[in-house]
Amino acid sequence: MKHLSLIIATITTFALTAHANTTTVYKSVGKHGETLYSQFMPKGTTNYETLQMRSDGRTASAGQMANLPDPATAPTNNDTQRIAEQQKQIDELKAQEEARRCQTMRANLANLSTGGRIYETNANGERVYLNDQEISAKKQRTADAIKQYCGN
């Protein structure tokens, strides 16, 4: 009899401890369509869902299998698709930046080729006019950069 009461006490303690690790969370939809989660039952609506959450943030459903991958760490199709879309946007932005840079270099080469007096501004904010040799050297450097970065 003593062993039976010890077994019953152990099972009861285990059951209470297992239930104590879950928290009731109420999931509802707000006025503007946003999903809301709260530990308190929403007032003024009957359109809500009750979730039992474990301490690790997953729902406490009896049907979960122990060997399933953690959904928080396993990439889903949506994650993979979102990452691919973001990479595509990054590539497009890089291409736009390269095109802008090439356009700027071509405009600089055109300005150097028009003739006339060309100057640069030094660190003191003063104009320093370039002689013909300096202009020719700048033209060559700009043309080389266009060939290297713009492919033309």
Detail the topology: elements first, then pairings.
Layout: H1 2-20, E1 22-29, E2 35-38, E3 48-54, H2 77-113, E4 119-121, E5 127-129, H3 132-150
Helix pairs in contact: 2-3
Descriptive overview:
By secondary structure, this protein is α+β, with helices and mostly antiparallel strands. It has 3 helices and 5 strands. It has helices spanning 2-20, 77-113, 132-150; strands spanning 22-29, 35-38, 48-54, 119-121, 127-129. It has a 3-stranded antiparallel sheet with strand order 2-1-3. A two-stranded antiparallel sheet has the order 4-5. The chain is elongated, with a radius of gyration of 35 Å. The chain starts with a helix and ends with a helix.
Radius of gyration: 35 Å
Major β-sheet, in short?
Answer: 3 strands, antiparallel
Give the SSE order as H and E letters.
Answer: HEEEHEEH
State the secondary-structure class: alpha+beta
- Large-scale geometry: elongated
Residues in helices, as a percent range: 40-55%
Low-confidence parts lasting 5 or more residues at pLDDT below 50?
Answer: none
Please provide the count of β strands.
5
Question: How many helix segments?
Answer: 3
N-to-C CA distance: 94 Å
For this entry, what is the oligomeric state of its chains? single chain
Mean pLDDT: 78
